[in-house]
What does this fold into?
Amino acid sequence: MIIKQLTWRLILPLTIISFGTFTKWWYVLPGDAPDTMIVGFPLAFAGDGWFTSMSLQIFLIEFIVDFIIYFLFWFLIVLLIRRILTQINISKF
It folds into this structure.
């Protein structure tokens, strides 16, 4: 029950904030398209459209994998902090 509350109230917001904050910009040279910038870390998930100007292409599988990696990272950090802080119990004896 507590993990479910932590997931909705802490881990998911941290995931979304870090997903938008910690990213990498790559300048790529595709073989049959113009030079372009793509965004994402650790996998590139968005970039300029190669067929029309002023378009954006989003790679869905890479986006989902990146989101899961960020979520698992924050889940493990919060879980470790929670376990470390709850294991420090002073004996009543």
